[in-house]
Each structure stands twice: as structure tokens, then as C-alpha cells.
Amino acid sequence: MQEPILSLKNVVYSFKTYGGTVKAVRDVSFDVRPGEILGIVGESGCGKSVTAQCIMRLNPEPPGFFEGGEILYKGQDVLKMNKKELREFRSKEIGFVFQDPMTSLNPTMRVGAQIEEVFRGHKDISRQEVKEKALEIMKLVGINNAEKRYRQYPHELSGGMKQRIMIAIALVSQPSVIICDEPTTSLDVTIEAQILELLLELREKLGTSIIMITHDLGVIAKICDRVVVMYGGKLMERGTVDEIYYETAHPYTKGLMESIARLDTAKDERLHPIEGTPPDLFAPPVGCPFAARCEHCMQICNELPPEEIHFSAEHSTVCWLQHEMAPETSFRRPHMDAGKEEI
Amino acid sequence: MAEYRQEQFVVQGKNTEKMESISRPSLSFWQDAWRRLWKNRSAFIGLCILVLYVLLAIFAPMLSHYKYTTMDAQAMNQAPSAMHWLGTDATGRDQWVRVWMGARVSLSIGLFTAVINMCVGAVIGGLCGYYGGKLDMIVMRIVDILYGIPSLIITILVMMVLGKGVAPLIVALCVVGWIGTCRFVRGEVYRLKEQEFVMAARVLGVPDFAIILRHIIPNIIGMLITNLCMSIPGAIFQEAFLSYIGLGIAPPNCSWGVLAKEGIAYMRIHPHEIFWPAFFICTTMLALNLLGDGLRDALDPKLRGTE
Amino acid sequence: MARYIIKRVIAAILTLFVLVTIVFFLVRLMPGEPFTNPKLTPDVAANLRKYYGFDQPLIVQYFKYMGNLLRGDFGYSMHYTNKTVNYIIGQTFPYSADLGIRALCVAVSFGLILGILAARKRGTKIDFFCVMVAIIGTSMPDFIIGACLQYFFGIKWGLFPVAKYQGFQYTVLPACALSFYTLAHVSRIMRASMLEVTTQDYIKTARSKGLSEVRITAKHQIRNAIMPVMTILGPTVAAVLTGTFVIEAIFAIPGMGKYYVESVSNNDYSMTLGMTVFYGIFLVFCNLIVDILYGIADPRVRIGKK
């Protein structure tokens, strides 16, 4: 097993509002390995974006603040970095692609200048080299006519083109990790396919790890290696894509999968949406956050938070149904021995 | 393991009540606005000052035994005293009474001008924005041209045509004053008209007046109120300015602008004569600005639920 | 860009035409005539009327006046006999312009600084101070500020001369008095606009690039936040101009505002008309320049998208 390049350990992140504290991320841990695409999936408001942004500490602080945990990047804790180290980390080591390319580019700056800005503060590089790199990356992300586009303003470009520029900004300094926060949600389907294709291609060429945040299991299936399922600010299930799809161990994951239409869904077959809405993290439930919407909810689910149970090196879930006293369901999987985990 | 009991593992199924639960307190628009206005200390102080001044403007001249026109050659340019609370002016008139008579004029000019401008502007702008078409095009061309003309110049000329007095002043300030509101309301209505909830109402066959009443007005009323509160100081400023250059209120009537003008003439020898009118003008403006800021924050639907 | 400028220029010319027409007829509507002095015999009055062209039909007078305007002739004063309005404007406008430009520079530069500072230090004492300055500034009419400055700095403490306009130290008080309201206004708008921009996504993008806070503020926030401030520059020029009317009177500066106010109280119609039209042209011209500057600053306007 490769050493993780980035790992989150028991991260707790909250926001202060007028009525009290909203616990947006509650005790989340996962690893990102070199060159892999990790998907984070969940409904809106389940803490995906906040998690992603707190890796780079992009959430406004205040009102946001870390209550605990650590984020290790190549062994260094991001939370303990000083301003200068943090800037260096953001500009050289990690990139971020935001959800809405329409509003994520500065309308008063030329596209080229916005890409080149990443090199601001890098001392060992000349202006000419910076420009060459910018043009090179623009070509790499599939922008034809890069010379011309370089001098244009964001409003002169289409949505897909803007998202390519955003990806170029994230990639230009050749970081080891880029985080894509629903990069295709605001684009139409054909453009979405192109952008996903591009991400896969870039991973091949540059070996960059990608954290892909999405609510779309289709996107996950298409490009990810491993998946983390989040709900109510907590981790529900994680594993490789195949494990998540074929050996689903959490009712929420199953719910997510049943609520999307597929080509092989029969005509008269109905979709099964998950009824209800995610919990308000203003006052999160004591037990499992999904308890209220779960068909298999037991008394204990409302009383105590379940513990993480491992099935294989990658696959684990957080659910009471896996407990030996729980009734037998299709979710039940053989547990991995505690000792085996070490290997 | 022993700590768990078997009955804890009985499947209960979904909890339909809890799954839609909302743990934040839910407030109506006006409740939320009031909460934020109340929490905003400075806006509340502004409101208190305004109420106090309005009450004084109504009652102070009635309760004093001086009249604002009575001159007293024995008591000219007196400093504040028990007899004359704010002193007297160059012709021996009691300043306390004159200040509050002036407040009546200044405050009512401010209020009437702002209200008239808002109504005219909102109606014209609303109609243009909602119905659009040729009417909108013609009116907006006219408005665009009028908007380019410096309003002050028109105001001054209209004052010169109509002569001094309260009514001419209000007319002069309203001739071009509605244009700002008109543009703003038209823009807002135009924007709202295109939004899905209005579309939905229209598709359902809701008549126009009901759409305007239920969907458009509630969405712009907050901004209109804020706008109103913010435009009162402007009108009072203009009145003071016009009175200062000799075009506002004809003597013996007075307004805060007139009092300030008279006071400045004697400033070197009797500074109190400028101080009090200036004090009341400034504190009124301050109160209105604070209240306006507070209202803007309280009524802005975008800021709902935030601090 | 060229199309945008041409459009603006045409609009400005149209505005000017409407303005001059309105002003001309309003001035003719004014009650009383300039030649109602009882000392004038009917004969002399009639002669004067003829001399000034008042005996002709209104429409003829109107076209004559427009013709003169096109040649740059604003008419003559009836009060200061033998002086043309052009002459008086030529004598007095430089003072007003000098004062106005100083005030504008002070107002815009300090206003922007206060606004930016307040927004950057939001919620701190610095913010509170800046907001207080802004609120007090917008709460005081300029003649009161002028009177206060004159009283304290001029009369009481004797730091600056109180009247006339003969050197740098003479300009300090009137320029400050004139700039205060605008300064406050600019700082309020700048602060609000900075805070609005802070929540925009592209600021997050900038942060994700690892830029320093200073760079983010300078390059991303200010550049975008300054747009709303530019839109009020037109009205701001008008406000400063209005201010000159009273400030010049208070500080006894021989500027145009003082003469304008005088002409109003002297019923000097032709001078009022001439000066009003001059002010109108001036302001419309300023608005035009502001519009063009706005187009240069915001690439979205330049291309013609709204």
C-alpha cells in the first residue's frame, strides 16, 4: 500500500452563527494516495464542500474554525502552518477547482494574468517562463487558440471554457493534489463528459491525485478509484468503487444508488428517492445522522453513534446494522479481523 | 459488548416526523427584520431621536408662551438662559420656539418630498417594469435624459419660477426627485418579473394585480422603505441648502436652513445662534442615516437569518 | 469601445439640448421682469426690452439664444452692466475649479482609503472609527461644516486664514469643508462594495492560488469594488459644485458659485440663465467622462454586455 500524500485525521470543523454553532464536519478521516482519484459523494448540505475547502483552509475564518483533528500533507500538518507556509502550500502543492466557473474568475482580469498569478511569489522563475507555462497549460487543458484566449476576459469565454481555465489555474504549478468541488454541476452533459475526460487524461500525464467532490454517482463510477460517502458531516462508508457499488454496506449508499435513473432501469420500475432531507447540522442528531430517514433504523441508532467497521483493506462503514446483535440484512458483510488490518 | 441490550437492535423503520425536522427557529420576514432592527442598537437610537424630535416639533411651540414671530428689542442676541432656553436671535425672537417651528417645516418637507417621490417613482417605474413594451421604452428614454440633467439646477429654476414657500419647495424637489426611485423600481420589478415564482403564478392564471400584490410588492417593499428613509435626509439637505442661498422659505417663516443661515451671519460674536440649528440638523440626519442603515440591513432579504 | 463612446456622446448632446430648452423656458416663466424698476420711464424700459430682444416672440428669442450658445456666447449680465456672462465665468470659474478639484482629490483619495481600511478591518475599532466618520460626514450640510471649520480653525485657534483665496493655506479650510460630505459618501460606498466583493467566489480562487492577503485586496478586491464608486462620481461632481455655492460665500472666495447665488437674489435673469447653462454643460460633460472611464475600467461594459 502506497504512503498517502494527504490524510485527514478526525477533522472537526464548525461555523459560528447567531443562534449557535453549526457542526459542518464531524470527525472525518480519509487518505489520498499519489495519482489516485478519490471521490467524495453525498447530498447537498452534507459537508462535502466544507471538508474540501478546509483542506486548503479556504473557508472564511471566522465564522468557521477547526475544533480538532489534523490534516497531514506529506507529513506536515496544514493546520499548524503559518501564513507564509500556507501560501506556499496553496500555490505549489495543491490546486482547487470550484463549482461555478461563472463566478470563480475575476471579471476584471485577463484570463492569462489569472493563470500566471499562481507564480506570484515564486522567485526562481522569469516572466517569460511564466507565460510559456501558462500557454502550455492552456493547451494541455484543451484550449485551442491559447494565444488569443490568453488575452481575453472571462465573460468572453463559454462555461466549459471557463472551467478549463479554472483547471489550468489549479494545475499550472504542477501540484501533487487537486481538489475539484463539483466541477461539472453547472455545466451541461456534453461539456461534463469532456471535462471528466480531461481530468482522467491529466491524471495519466501528470500523475496528479484528484479529490472529486460530487453528488453524482455516475461521475464517481466513471472516473474514481476510491469513494468516500458522507452524510450529515460524517463519514458513512468508504472503499474502492467496486466495493461501494457491488458490496454496499450502508443503507444510505444504497439509497443514493437507488435514487438515480440508469439505462438498465426497466420502464415500469420506479426510482426510489430517499425520503426526507439531511439533518440540520445546527443541532445534529446524537446517534447516526441518517437514522431518521433509514428504513432499517433501530432504537440504538438514535441513541449512540456507531463505530467504524472494516471489511477489507479499503472497505469500511459506520453503521449499527453491522453489529452482531443487529438483525440479519443484505448489508451484513464479514468483518475483517483487527489483526489483518495491520498487513 | 455486554453493554448493549437486544431490544436496542429492533428495527423501527423511518421516522417521518424527525426526518424533515428543522431545528432552527423559523421567523416571518417582518419578525426577522424586527429582530435585527432591535438588535441593531444604533438604528434603535436613531429611531428614538426621531420620535423625540417629532414630538417636540409638534408640542414645543404650543407649550411655550413665546411666539416664533414675536420680536423683542430688549432681548436681542441673548445666550441660553432660563427665560430663553436656547437664547434669542438678532431680533430677540426665542430660539427654542423657532427651532421647533423650523423642525416642523424641515421635517415635513423631508417627509412629504420623500413620500411623493417614492409613490410617483414606484408607480411609474413599476408599470414600466411590469408591462414593458412601448410605454416602457418611451418613459425610459425620457427618464434617461432627465437623469442626465443636474437636478439641482432644475430645482433652483423651479423655485425661482414658483417663488418661496413650503409648497413650491416640495414641488421643486419633486419635479426631478422621482427619477431615481423610478429607475430603481423598474429595474427591480423587471428582474422579479423574470423570476420563476412570478412565471409560475402567471402560468397558473393568477391575474396581474394579484401577482403585483402578492409577489412583486412584498419583494420590493423592504427596499422601498429603506429608500424612503434614506431620501428624507437628502430632501432636508436640499431645503437647508436652498434656504441658505435665499430661495427656500420666506420670512417670517423659518426652517432649520433659514436658522442656520441667520446664525452663520452672527457666528463670530454669538456662536450659540448657529450651534443649535446646526446641532438639530446634524442629529436628525444622523438619526435618519443610522435608522436607514439599520433598515437596509434588517429588510434585505439576502441577509435574512444572518447576524 | 468606439461605439460605446459615440453612444454616450450622442446621449450627452441630447441631454444638453433638452436641458437648455427647459432652462430657457423656465427662466422666461419667472415672475416679474428685470425692467420693473420704477425709476425707469416706460420709454426707456421699452428701449431696454428692445435692446435685450424681449419684444420678439418667445420662439425667435429661443432660436437666437440657441444660435448664440452654439457660438459659445452665454449672454450678458443685466446687473453688472457691460459685462458678459462669458467674462464673469472666465474671471470666476478658475477659482471654483481649483477649489473643486482640490476637494474632489481629497474626498476620493481619503474616502477610498477609509472605505478600504474599514472593510479590511471589519468589526474592529478602526472599522468603527471609519464608519463613524462616514456617518457624521453624511449628516452635516456643507455650510455647517464650513462654518465649524472657519470658527474653530480660523477664528478660535487662528491656524488658517478665514477668508479670501490667495495661497495654499487659504485653500485648506474650504477644500476640507467641501470634501467632507463626498469623502464620507465615497467611504461608505467603498466599504459596502468591498464587503460585497469579499464574499465572491473569485476571491476564494485567488486565495487558493496562494496569494498574499495584500495582493488579494489590491488586485482582486479593490479593482472590482471600485466600480460602484465610479458610478457615483458623476453625482459627486454635482454635489461638490453645489457645495461651492455656499462654501465660497462663507469663505468669501470670488468663485463662480458666489456670483451664481448673487444672480439668483438679484433677479439677474440673463446671468442666471447663462451660468445655469454653463453648469449644465459642465456637469453633463463630467458625466460623459465618468461614463467613458467606467467603460475603460470594466471590460464587461466595454464589450457592450450589460
Would you give an account of this structure?
- The complex is a heterotrimer of chains A (343), B (307) and C (306).
- Chain A has 343 residues and is α/β, with parallel strands linked by helices.
- In chain A, 31% of the residues lie in helices and 22% in strands.
- Chain A is built from twelve helices and twelve strands.
- In chain A, a hairpin with a 2-residue loop joins β1 (6-17) and β2.
- The longest helix of chain A has 18 residues, at 189-206.
- Chain A is globular and about 65 Å long.
- Mean pLDDT of chain A is 82; it is low at 339-343.
- Chain B is mainly α and 307 residues long.
- Chain B has a single domain (30-57, 96-303), classed as MetI-like fold, CATH 1.10.3720.10.
- Chain B has helices spanning 29-39, 41-63, 95-131, 133-148, 151-162, 166-193, 196-203, 208-244, 256-265, 272-299.
- In chain B, α3 (95-131) runs antiparallel to α4 and α8 packs parallel to α9.
- Helix content of chain C is 78%, strand content 0%.
- The model of chain C has no long low-confidence stretch (mean pLDDT 82).
- Chains in contact: A-B, A-C, B-C.
- The A-B interface holds A 17-19, 275-277, 279-280, 282-283, 291-300, 302-303, 320, 323-327 and B 1, 4, 6-16, 18-25, 305-307.
What's the number of extended β-strand segments of chain A?
12
Number of strands of chain C: 0
Structural class of chain A comes to: alpha/beta
Q: Most extensive interface: pair and counts?
A: B-C, 42 and 43 residues
| Principal-axes shape call of chain C | flat
How would you write the strand order of the largest sheet of chain A?
A: 6-7-8-3-9-10-12-11
Low-confidence stretches of chain A: 339-343
Radius of gyration of chain A: 21 Å
Instruction: Provide the helix percentage of chain C.
Output: over 70%
- The tally of helices of chain C reads 13
Mean pLDDT of chain A: 82
Keywords:
heterotrimer, B: 307 residues, mainly alpha, MetI-like fold, 68% helix, C: 306 residues, 78% helix
Strand and helix layout:
The complex is a heterotrimer of chains A (343), B (307) and C (306).
Chain A: E1 6-17, E2 20-32, E3 37-41, H1 48-55, E4 64-73, E5 76-77, H2 83-93, E6 94-97, H3 101-104, H4 111-116, H5 127-140, H6 146-150, H7 159-171, E7 177-181, H8 189-206, E8 209-214, H9 217-223, E9 226-231, E10 234-240, H10 241-246, H11 251-258, H12 299-303, E11 308-310, E12 316-318
Parallel strand pairs in A: 3-8, 3-9, 6-7, 7-8
Antiparallel strand pairs in A: 1-2, 1-4, 4-5, 9-10, 10-12, 11-12
Helix pairs in contact in A: 5-7
Chain B: H1 29-39, H2 41-63, H3 95-131, H4 133-148, H5 151-162, H6 166-193, H7 196-203, H8 208-244, H9 256-265, H10 272-299
Chain C: H1 2-29, H2 42-52, H3 58-70, H4 85-120, H5 125-139, H6 142-156, H7 168-198, H8 201-208, H9 213-231, H10 233-250, H11 256-265, H12 269-297, H13 299-303
Helix pairs in contact in C: 1-12, 4-5, 4-7, 4-10, 5-7, 6-7, 6-10, 7-9, 7-10, 8-9, 10-11, 10-12
